[in-house]
Amino acid sequence: MTGRLGWLPTGLSRRHHAALMLVLVLFGFSGWLFRPGHVAGPTREVGLDSLSRIDGTLNVVEEDRLVLKPLLPQQPGVIEFEIPVKYRGNFDLAHLRAHSSLGIPTRLFYLRQGARYLAVYKTDTPANGAP
Amino acid sequence: MRRSAPALCMAAAAVLLTPASASAHGVQGQVDTPVPLAAFIVAAGVVVAASFLGLGLLWSRPVLAGAAGRQRSYAVPGRRLLLPLGRAVVLLGLLLVLATAAWGSRELAENPSAVAVFVVWWVGLVPLTLLMGDVWRALHPVATVARALRFRADTGRYPQALGVVPAAALLAVWAWLELVYPTAASPRLLATLIGCYVLGTLLAMRVFGVQVWLRLGDPFTVLTRLLASMSPVRLSRGRLVLRAPVVSAARLRAEPGLIAYVAVLVGAVVFDGFSGTDVWARRDALASQRVEAWGLTPFAAGIVVATVGLLLVLVITGLLYEACCAAAARLAGLPEGRTTWRAGLGRYAPLFAHSLLPVAVGYQIAHYFTLFVFQSQDLVRLASDPFGRGTDLFGTADATIDFNVVSPGVIWTVQLLAVVLAHVVGLTLAHDRALETEKGNAVLRAQLPIVALMVALTVAGLWFLSEGMAQP
User: Fold this and answer.
1) Core-most of A31, B146, B153, B211, by most CB within 10 Å?
2) B408–A128 C-beta distance less than 8 A
3) What ipTM does this complex have?
């Protein structure tokens, strides 16, 4: 069974034409969705060496808040971090949620302001060695 | 053994290229490695390309399929007891995981089900199969129930033309749950997913037969069947069969859906790596803003964007492979009388599909090595209090993860070797298959696009890993 659409390669079946159309739609939509633009992306120039850091698993991931259960036993309970607006570009929430849902240890870099913990940046813990 | 010299030389070169002399924090970024990280990545690509030259010079006739026939088998003492015992233990494990997911703590950090399913079982399935053969298919807990219910092995109803297409589709669903859906590991949802998997698998086994579904439909047993072809161990009718590793993969023949299955396997890990890079983070954030403008919540927008990203990577992986095969056909010369690109594609794509299997394995090991080594330790703590009620059954409720169990240098060495050796082995399989089917210069010409693909995948794989590891 061979169908022909004038602008598509010849010698393809209707099934292949349908698959090709779906791929073209996917590519077109992706091109629109992922086109360049301005966004507050990760700002890696935050001077992480000067920040405190802690490793743990994230129990809550929200746009302005993270709740982390520390891995080390001497840091019991959970710690709630605020994510200041200027650092929100450093936290890819969708990716963070997907990985935190598996309990992958996360390293948070943070600032202290009195009793408040301000999250600045995050990386995955394991590849970075000991907490 | 002489013919395996090129691969061994390349492996040795890869070992020499690893940052053994790097400091304890060698994996943390370029500043801590003896040469820039980019140099390692380029060198790894060069090693893979050079292995192609070595193979071309020193490997002149197909030997792997013949070598696969050389094996020794041994009777397994107590096999009549071991198999039912193993099946009972695995079934009990499934029931325990299901129970903890359904009735244990709702807190992820206090429930062992996610670690058991996503880390110990799913990630551990690859090394288990590589070391022990297709153990999972023999012990499959749902198949144990199906056999107890006296389901037939083959009802004759499975449409053979489908091949492993259902397994490829289900593997894509699994990849979506693992990599895209933000809360797939939350205990109650996980319990629902396990329940759906058990019921769906039982239904499929009832309709198509237990063995047929395990061979063609179940995404996990199709994986173990394919990976087991690279294992030095095979279980056959109660006997333990030993053979050279990898060689049996040369006997794998094309079946419908195999390319799609392998593309999903490789593409899913590529997406997992890519989604950890800053490049993706920027695109993801921007795309999420665009989707949120339609009125979707950030949660839903994140799912839409990541779904499109995953689909895109899966499709590109499959298309890249097919494009390379079409190019291989052009370079080697199309079959006489055939002039369309489809003829070449149809001829070569099934031929080389098995060469992507080691690539998938290498990516899996490299990407999930740390997750497995570190996070699986948490099961020791969680096992003492499986339902999150403050119990301490084994006295390990306060156990913590030891992040010093392997050094950063070991991690990077394992990751680099896994990626590079996987591609060298893939190239070797492709080369041996080309020698089976082509003659003269066409042998090497047919492989050129595959070599380019392998080099590209090596560099991309290591770049993703280095992005995930690098300290800002």
Assistant:
1) B146
2) yes
3) 0.74
